[in-house]
Every structure is written in C-alpha cells, then in structure tokens.
Design brief:
53% helix; 22 helices; Rossmann fold; alpha/beta; 477 residues
Length: 477
C-alpha cells in the first residue's frame, strides 16, 4: 500500500509543470507583469491552463472524458492577444506553438496543410524532451568529452599482447618500461587542465561526420515537409557516412562533442514516446488571425470558398483526430486550442457553426485608452521606456522621462489611434521611435556620458506638427 502511495505521489510530482505549482490567480499575476488590463482574457486563460494539470490528477476512466475548453479571443489589433500567447509560451512547461490561420490553405490548393501545425508542435515537443534528457546526462557526457579530447591531445595507452604500450609511438623515441605510468600522470594532469579550461585556446583536429545526402527538393502539391518526412530519415542509413576533418579550439570542440556524446547517451525511443504524450495531454496551439478565414455567407467568391475549406480542414483537428507525423500517430483530442482575431470585417458568427462550437469560451478584449497607454509605458517589466533607457545606458547616456512627458506620449498615442487607425499599443513603438530619433542618431558621436531628460515640451514640439497634419500622421505615425 505504501509503495502504491509513493508511486502515486511520484506520478503527481512528474505531472506537475509550472501550472501544477501556480494557481489561476498566480498565473494572472505573472501575466500582469507584462500585459495591462484584459482581466477577463487572463482569467479565462489561467483557468484553462490550470485545468490542464487538474485533468492529469483525475482517475483514468474519467480523464479521457474531460475535453479542453478551447478559447477564442476577440479584440482589435495591438491590445494584447498575441502578447498573452507569448507569455503563456514562456510560462508553460508544455509544447506550445503559435500559428497564423491565414497561412493555411484548403486541401487541394498549393500551400500549408492545417495538419502541419500538429507536426510542428510534435517536433517542438521532441526538442523539449531531448533537451531535458541531455541535461540529465550532462555530467556523464562532459566526462566522455574530456576523454575524447584527451585521446587527441595525448594518445591513450592500449594493451597489446598483455603488455601496456603507447597507442602511437613517436618516431625516433625509444619506449621505456615505465612509459605507461608517465602517460597516466600526463593524462591526469591534462585532464585537470581541460576541466579548468586552461587549454581552451589550443587548436585540435576533429573527425566530424558530414551529411552524405544531397539536398533535394520535391515539387508537387504536398512536399515532404507536409508529410512530416525527410530524405535523411528515409535513406540516411543506406548511404555511407562521410567524415571530414575540422580544426577547432578545444573550447569549440567541447561544444561540438557535447552534442554528439549527449545524443549517444539518451534513448530516442523514450524521448519520442514522452514527447508524443506531452503533445497529446499538455500541448497548446495558439491560432492567430482566425478572422481572416471567416467569410460572410452572403459573399460567394472563390476566396471565400477556400477560407471555408480551411475551416472545414481545421475542424477535425480541433474536434479531435489522429495526425500522422514522422514520430508516429498523434491524437489531438486533448490539445488546448486558443484562437484570436480582430474581427473588424467579419464576425465570429461568420465561422462555420461546427467550428464555433469547438471554441465554447469567448473572451472580448477591450480597446486601449490614454490611461492604459500610460500604464503600458511605465508598469510592465519590458516597458518601452525601460527598453530605450537600457539601450542608451550601453553608451553611458542616462535617459530620463518626466511623468508629464509620459502622459503626453500616451495622449498622443490615443489621439492618433482615434483619428487615423486603431493599432493599439503598437502605436507607442512608432511614436517613441520618432520622438527619440535624433537622440539615438547623435549619441555615439556627440553625447557621451550625458544625461538627457525628456519633458512634455519636447514631446509636444516633436510630435504636434505630425499629429495635426492628418496626411503626415497617417504615413509617419
């Protein structure tokens, strides 16, 4: 009974990713560090992510019955939809991929097949698991690398006919009875120097395996990439492997050999099995610009037929199907799908009803106002003002923004978005680039060890003419 309990605890421990440790409120707190407002979207995403972990803890007979509640985020461009996805990918201890719906085409048309996103997600998962396994064998791999470099720097003693002799005796040098002891001492001394990095600058010659397969391109409606196959996997073992000699420093050789030794120590069958399991139970796909494939039923152009075809191809993937990849079949039943779109022209109701039903949770993101822009410029850890300040600090220039100048920048951004076109927080990038253009240009030559303060008057002087001229603001801001 005790063994069963400990096994259960170990299983729970292994299944806990970052979301097993963070509550929904803590996930929202992490997102708050980078994204201003949009509380409903953050809350929905946090609940969905926590549910991923909760599902792993339920009984096996119930686990398969619990389907993910896919989310569709609706809101204008630049309000944080994609940023939420980016931050999820940073937080998630799970395979995550962001795709654009507009890049896919209906089966039969030249372009990307919707199934390719699952193949890419699986590739990513394999790389994640492989990196984890390589970290586990890192110490053993480092020892093997040191031994391989030692064999190059100082040939290893080998036993021949029961006697220990140097592997390669230098011409003109007679063998001495205690050569093996001297060699062992030399190896030990050089081993310590290699571990301490004292020989990193020395040049050695390595025999590296090269690709023997030529680069081939397959022309046709479906390429090898879409089938999840490549020529190296198919024919690599049938062709002789070529090796080539390269001269590298020991520091560079350590990196190259580390990859080879790590690859030898990990079991790729185990990696693939764990990676596929990660995709099927923890995978997250963020589908951006889903509004671009939503066509009104009143329209009947061929483009709309193609867009509806993409929706119908997407439906079985979101609904749950099996996709064939080069690592084997992958089931999509429990992958979490998060879609987003501005829906300026089309509406969510323009999506085919079946696809709408597969995104039961709808979250509307609000447009940004002047107060939001002020917070975006000051509060997040990656705020634009902090970025420009850090950039100029590299040239010993201290850039300081007064509070009134930041409020003026926020006011200008809100005004231009209202008058020209609402592109959300992306407007701040354009405004700050124009505001700081002269400073960024002149700093290396004319302003060294200076302190520059940006005040409200400077902001008004730099931007007022552009804002007042509607045509200029359209092209410049």
């Amino acid at each position: 009974m005790a063994k069963a309990d400990s096994g259960r605890e170990e299983k729970v421990k292994q299944s806990k990713g970052i979301f097993g440790q963070l509550t929904p409120s803590q996930i929202v707190e992490e997102l708050d560090k980078y994204i201003i407002g949009q509380e409903s979207a953050k809350k929905s995403v946090a609940i969905a992510l926590r549910n991923r972990w909760r599902r792993q803890q339920v009984a096996e007979n119930m686990k398969d019955e619990i389907m993910p509640n896919n989310i569709i985020m609706i809101g204008p461009t630049g309000v944080g939809k994609t940023e939420i996805a980016r931050r999820i990918s940073k937080l998630a201890n799970a395979p995550f991929i962001k795709v654009e719906a507009s890049k896919f085409t209906e089966v039969g048309y030249v372009g990307r097949d919707v199934e390719s996103m699952i193949r890419e997600l699986t590739d990513l998962s394999v790389n994640i698991v492989k990196t984890e396994k390589q970290e586990e064998v890192k110490l053993k791999a480092e020892e093997n690398v040191v031994e391989r470099i030692l064999d190059i720097v100082l040939p290893q003693m080998k036993k021949r006919n029961g006697e220990v002799k140097p592997a390669e005796a230098e011409p003109g040098v007679e063998s001495v009875p205690d050569a093996d002891e001297a060699n062992k001492k030399s190896r030990e001394k050089i081993r310590e120097q290699l571990k301490e990095g004292k020989l990193d600058g020395r040049i050695i010659e390595l025999d590296l395996s090269g690709d023997s397969m030529p680069m081939l391109q397959v022309l046709g409606p479906i390429g090898l990439e879409e089938m999840g196959l490549n020529l190296q996997d198919l024919f690599g073992n049938l062709m002789p492997k070529k090796s080539r000699k390269r001269k590298l420093t020991i520091a560079e050789a350590k990196k190259v050999l580390m990859l080879e030794e790590s690859q030898k120590l990990i079991d790729m069958d185990t990696v693939i099995r764990e990676a596929v399991d990660k995709v099927q139970n923890s995978g997250i796909v963020f589908i951006d610009e889903i509004d671009k494939i939503a066509g009104s039923q009143k329209q009947s152009s061929t483009a709309d037929v193609s867009r509806e075809g993409v929706q119908r191809d997407l439906l079985p993937i979101v609904e749950g199907s099996t996709v064939i990849t080069k690592y084997g079949p992958v089931k999509t039943d429990h992958i979490l799908f998060i879609a987003s779109g501005a829906f300026h022209i089309s509406k969510p109701s323009d999506l085919i009803p079946e696809l709408q039903g597969r995104f039961p949770i709808r979250v509307e993101l609000n447009s940004l106002n002047e107060d939001d822009f002020y917070k975006i410029l000051t509060q997040p850890q990656n705020a634009l003002i902090k970025q420009y300040t850090a950039l100029l600090e590299t040239e010993n220039v201290r850039l300081k923004f007064s509070d009134s100048s930041i409020k003026e920048i926020a006011k200008v951004a809100a005004e231009v978005n209202e008058q020209v076109e609402n592109i959300g927080a992306r407007r701040l990038h354009t405004i700050l680039t124009n505001l700081l253009e002269d400073i960024l240009f002149d700093v290396p030559d004319r302003m060294k060890k200076a302190s520059i303060e940006i005040n409200r008057e400077l902001v008004s002087e730099k931007l007022s003419k552009i804002v007042k001229n509607r045509d200029l603001s359209r092209y410049i801001l």
